[in-house]
Write a structure and sequence with these properties.
The complex is a heterodimer of chains A (176) and B (209). With 176 residues, chain A is mainly alpha-helical. Chain A has one domain. In chain A, 74% of the residues lie in helices and 6% in strands. In chain A, helix 2 crosses helix 4. The longest helix of chain A is centred in the last third of the chain and has 32 residues. Chain A is elongated, with a radius of gyration of 19 Å. Chain B has 209 residues and is mainly α. Helix content of chain B is 59%, strand content 8%. A 3-stranded antiparallel beta sheet of chain B has the order 1-2-3, with helices on one face. In chain B, helix 1 runs antiparallel to helix 5, helix 2 packs across helix 6 and helix 5 packs parallel to helix 7. Chain B starts with 20 loop residues before the first helix and ends in a 9-residue tail after the last helix. The chains are: A mainly alpha (176), B mainly alpha (209). At the A-B interface, helix 1 and helix 5 of A face helix 1 and helix 7 of B.
Chain lengths: 176, 209
């Protein structure tokens, strides 16, 4: 009974801290200074990396700001809020920070998580760039629904694997 | 009596949390497989799901803005909201009778969390799937309705009717609607399904000795 209430208290604490961090960071990234100093430059950087990856097999791809452009057919996509991977990173950061773990492991989890989310996000952007050239209807579907869910599934898998790698908490401390 | 070390080096764990890496990757693979089925079914049933969600959204809009009786209709894979100003606003602004603001909303942006959640829950092999699926879907539909209502309220608050703006939200209300719209499209449909799945997955089976 004591262990159950302790477990419930820990889960409640995790949920509250998680929701608090998500809401605070999500609201913060909507502010003008965050858009100018973090979101904008980050989005441009994501666009440049995606262009660099696409150029490995398609030299006709070019970039201007956060817009990828095909010189061969004129198709272009602009990376906006929701497509730069920041939301998934915020959610993952909140989940890692809300879970009781040593800071060393948290930082390692954040580094690995950012890498995993952004790697898949680059795949998303490059794939959408070519899906859009093939079919606008499929592009809309993949862009608005499928890839959103896949990125969040990626964050969930990273978090679950990170939890597994945490050192075991001695029972005495776990119930303290 | 000598204690036997746990077969799981990480100790006893619950649900998806703390599952073995192989089980986590299998869970991801099952989610992708179930997602094909549930996203397909959701797309086929887009009209009833969207109309049900939009009906709730219309009631929220009526409660939070100076809107009269809001009407909804399915048109071109989107929901058309017809929002008349309420009687006092129409009288104050001397709006012609029958004036309304029409807005087309792609409600699938807000409701795709339902198939995502059902796929996650199926992949997690949760016990009492039907009850948990129904409860989670209901929560997601209400959250989707909040997101849709915020999108409609933003449209209502930025549209002029007969040269006047029937609804001009203040700075705080405008920010809340904007935040609700952002949460409704970027957080509710993709984060809440994950949270619900983790909450509903239930205790994991004990590792085999």
């Amino acid at each position: 009974m004591a262990a159950e209430s302790c477990n419930l208290a820990a889960m409640t604490r995790f949920a509250l801290v998680f929701a608090g961090i998500v809401l605070a960071l999500f609201a913060a990234q909507l502010t003008a200074p965050a858009q100018a100093w973090v979101v904008g430059p980050w989005t441009d950087a994501v666009a440049h990396v995606a262009t660099w990856v696409a150029r490995a097999f398609d030299p006709a791809v070019t970039v201007a700001g956060a817009t990828l452009y095909s010189q061969s057919n004129g198709f272009a996509v602009t990376i906006l809020a929701g497509c730069n991977g920041l939301e998934a990173m915020i959610v993952l950061l909140a989940a890692i920070l809300a879970y009781p773990a040593p800071w060393k492991h948290r930082l390692a989890g954040l580094a690995g998580g950012v890498l995993a989310v952004q790697l898949l996000n680059i795949v998303r952007i490059v794939s959408l760039f070519y899906i859009g050239q093939w079919s606008v209807a499929v592009f809309e579907w993949a862009h608005l629904y499928a890839w959103q869910a896949l990125i969040m599934l990626d964050a969930l898998i990273v978090w679950l694997l990170w939890l597994r790698l945490l050192p075991r908490i001695p029972p005495a401390l776990a119930t303290a | 009596m000598a204690s036997t070390p746990s077969p799981d080096p990480a100790g006893p764990r619950d649900g998806l949390i703390g599952a073995a890496p192989r089980d986590i990757l299998l869970f991801a693979a099952r989610t992708l497989a179930w997602a094909v089925l549930f996203f397909g079914a959701w797309y086929v049933a887009a009209q009833p799901i969207s109309l049900a969600t939009s009906w709730i959204a219309a009631r929220i809009v009526e409660a939070t803005t100076p809107a009269g009786s809001a009407r909804i209709a399915w048109r071109n894979d989107k929901v058309m909201f017809t929002i008349p100003p309420d009687a006092s606003t129409a009288y104050r602004d001397r709006l012609p009778a029958g004036m309304s603001v029409d807005m087309e909303v792609n409600t699938l942006k807000q409701t795709y969390g339902v198939p995502f959640f059902l796929a996650l829950l199926a992949a997690a092999r949760a016990r009492r799937y039907a009850a948990k699926a129904a409860a989670g879907a209901a929560i997601l539909v209400v959250l989707a309705a909040i997101g849709i209502a915020c999108e409609v309220a933003i449209g209502f608050g930025t549209t002029q009717v007969a040269g006047t703006q029937p609804f001009a939200p203040g700075a705080a209300a405008g920010t809340l609607f904007a935040l609700g719209f952002q949460l409704g499209t970027l957080i509710f449909p993709c984060v809440v399904p994950v949270v619900l799945c983790l909450a509903f997955a239930g205790p994991a089976r004990a590792p085999a000795a």
